[in-house]
Specification:
This protein has one domain: TIM Barrel, CATH 3.20.20. Strands 1-2-3-4-5-6-7-8 form an 8-stranded parallel beta barrel, surrounded by 8 helices. β2, α3 and β3 form a beta-alpha-beta unit. It contains 10 helices and 8 strands. It is of the alpha/beta class. The chain starts with a helix and ends with a helix. It binds SN-glycerol-1-phosphate. SN-glycerol-1-phosphate binds next to β8 and α9.
Length: about 250
């Protein structure tokens, strides 16, 4: 097992985790590092770097290096395309957008980058990425047929397919900036049938939303927009306090 997957697996035994998503196009270098340091001080367990527009490898590398120098937790690339790959990070979500209509997003882009990832020694974290309505920009760019919010069985089906294909993680994504997160009932239903960890992201803005998702069994919460809009303020602190409470800290 790779180092980052081992880190996540060990930590998940003790309770749920939080990851902070930073878009290197919006926060380059030092400014990303400052957000990361404040987030980790509040208990965030990893820093994801990515955005839904093309990020140059130079900007990605500069930002990853600055973040790594500032925090002891893993840096994970959340790729929009093979262009955002840099050896500076600890790992990359090697993700298939399972409910995309486009073979490019299901497997071709991944095949295109696989040899490069092997060559630079980046740890691939195998992940099934499932877009839930509304899906926002990533749903459009990824040509997804978003899972309707009330169709928990479809979410279970995609998540189980990811597990049966041998993937290590499943990500239920409502889309960055979504007006509401993935419904807790959907998270609960997916957890009921799944043995691999469930990541939930998109539209989590309040402690109450975070608490509801954690109560439903979400194992990793991802937030991005809340810190982009308000910095490390009361909303982010509230979300992290729910995560810490759920792991008994
Ligand atoms: C987006 O799930 C992440 O890919 C985070 O979403 O920006 O809405 O927090 P937000």
């Amino acid at each position: 097992m790779g180092r980052v997957l081992q880190y996540l697996t060990d930590k998940l035994r003790r309770g749920p985790l939080h990851m902070t998503l930073i878009d290197p196009e919006k926060k380059v270098g030092r400014s990303a590092a400052n957000v990361a340091a404040a987030a980790v001080a509040l208990g965030s367990d990893a820093i994801m770097l990515g955005g839904s527009t093309g990020i140059s490898p130079e900007i990605m590398a500069e930002t990853v290096r600055a973040v790594k120098a500032a925090v002891p937790v893993p840096t994970i690339i959340f790729p929009e395309s093979p262009a955002s790959i840099t050896a500076a990070a600890d790992a990359i979500y090697f993700m298939s957008l399972l409910n995309s209509r486009s073979v490019d997003h299901v497997i071709r882009m991944q095949a295109h980058s696989a040899l490069e990832i092997l060559r630079i020694g980046l740890e691939p974290l195998s992940l099934g990425y499932i877009i839930v309505a509304p899906g926002m920009r990533v749903g459009e760019v990824g040509q997804a047929d978003p899972v309707p919010r009330e169709n928990v069985e479809l979410a279970q089906s995609y998540a189980l397919a990811a597990e049966f294909l041998g993937m290590h993680l499943v990500y239920l994504e409502a889309g960055s900036g979504a007006p509401a997160p993935v419904p807790p009932e959907m998270v609960r239903a997916v957890r009921k049938v799944l043995h691999i960890p469930v990541i939930v992201g998109g539209g989590i803005r309040t402690a109450q939303e975070a608490g509801n998702l954690l109560a439903a069994g979400a194992q990793i919460l991802v937030t991005g927009t809340v810190t982009e809009q308000e910095g490390i303020g009361p909303a982010f602190e509230g979300i992290l306090s729910e995560v810490r409470r759920a792991r008994g800290e």
